[in-house]
Amino acid sequence: MSTNNPLHAKPPYGMIAILFIGAFVSLLNETLLNVALPSIMTEFEVKPTAVQWLSTGYMLVNGILIPASAFFIQRFSDKKLFITAMFLFTVGTFTASIAPEFSVLLAARMIQASGSAIMMPLLMNVMLAAFPVEKRGTAMGMFGIVMITAPAIGPTLSGWLVEHYSWRMLFNIVLPIALLTLILAIFKLKDVTPQRAIKLDVLSLILSSIGFGGLLYGFSTAGDNGWDDPFVYGTIIVGAVALITFIMRQLSMDEPLLEFRIFKYPMFALSSAISIVIAIAMFSAMILMPIYVQTIRGISPMDSGLLMLPGAIVMGIMSPITGRLFDKYGARTLAVIGLTITVITSYFFSRIGMETAYSTLVILYTFRMFGMSMVMMPVMTNGLNQLPAINNPHGTAMNNTLQQVSGAIGSALLITVMNNRTKTRTEELLADTAGTMNSSPPATGTEIEIPQEIVNQAMLNGINFSFLISTLIAVIALILALFIKRVKPDYGKENDSDNSDAAHATTTEN
Questions:
Q1: What are the residue boundaries of the Major facilitator superfamily (MFS) profile domain, all occurrences included (predicted)?
Q2: Collapsing DSSP states into helix, strand and coil, what is residue 114?
Q3: How does residue 300 score in pLDDT terms, banded at 50, 70 and 90?
Q4: Whole-model pTM above 0.90?
Q5: Which homologous superfamily does the CATH classification assign to the domain defined by 261-431+451-510?
Q6: What is the fold, at CATH topology level, of the domain defined by 1-197?
Q7: Strands 486-488 and 506-508, bridge-based pairing
């Protein structure tokens, strides 16, 4: 049983706390800058397409390095790896805070991302090694506080800071925390996970970078540039071809960069599928709500951020509670309840109008986040529990990679749905207006000034329709959740490098 691991008797809580802080500031930094982009655009006199790279580029570097994190975690010690990652993040943060021009700021964000990409997989891997299966739910629930609340409070915090201070303050508040974490890591961090003398396959790394990087860039820019942009579909095609080649190469290798054979474990494969669907659905509120609140309703960015804050707080409170419930009842019960709440609240969001009360929006969003908090970590932990310990680095790397890619796909999908529906509804409203006024619609190609009321009504219709699509996506996840079973790995096979037979996993009904 799991008690044969000496770490399980006394988990390294001090080390985990240091890793928590590092992961928290790196994840917080991922969404912290979004609200400040207009201010940065004004100061450096750059176009929206250029300033967007501060977010897109950060995500791209994460998408490129996270698949390689399994190699780094197996090859290098926990202490050296975390110190290197934290050092890069700290250097990037300091450089960004004093950046004299936009190119320096962009380079600083890339350096930040190169450190951030390693922190989350490393933390998850340490926690899987440090806790027995029967206690992982509680541990991963605490991890959920970092994973869920840090990105959620980013827009609220940045909205307040940008409203009262310069955008540089966003980096200035992160810098001392990052520096303190680095110092603590140097003196307090120990090695927990075992290392293996494996070699880096350079071709796999190149194919992975092109594959995941191409898909992330293509999907993340499709919402703005349109699917007919040659650069959008070109990068998606190149990324897809490279990714297929990468997967085929990994399946033929004894020591792959990223182990795809872990999908032979049924509960890990199912948890990955549910996580992808949930990530796509979750982006609906994160992307569409600010557009609705600020553009259509004219509510300030600060109040827009505050609208989402109760939901972030609820998720933070619920994460450890959900973890304990997972240890007791398993993932299926929590996932079904949570996804049912998500489906219902998503449907209500598809019915919001011009006069929907601010308090109603806060309550709906908070309940939606409450539902989400019962799904993500339990489902992910249940899937990881079925993997032998030797595959934990690959499982955590795969989960983080899939979240990045599905997040980009979800963003592009929902923005495209909203834009297309808005365009169609605008044409319908203009035709109705022309008919009411007994006049002919303007000739094709004629430039007309569309009344703001029609623009807002059409955009609201587009947002409603996108939330309806999100509701249907959440229903798919709910159906998949019905097939979840509680699992534990066969510890007799835990250290066996041949994981081709998923039958070694012991599966019991939830």
A1: 15-489
A2: helix
A3: confident
A4: no
A5: MFS general substrate transporter like domains (1.20.1250.20)
A6: Growth Hormone; Chain: A; (1.20.1250)
A7: antiparallel
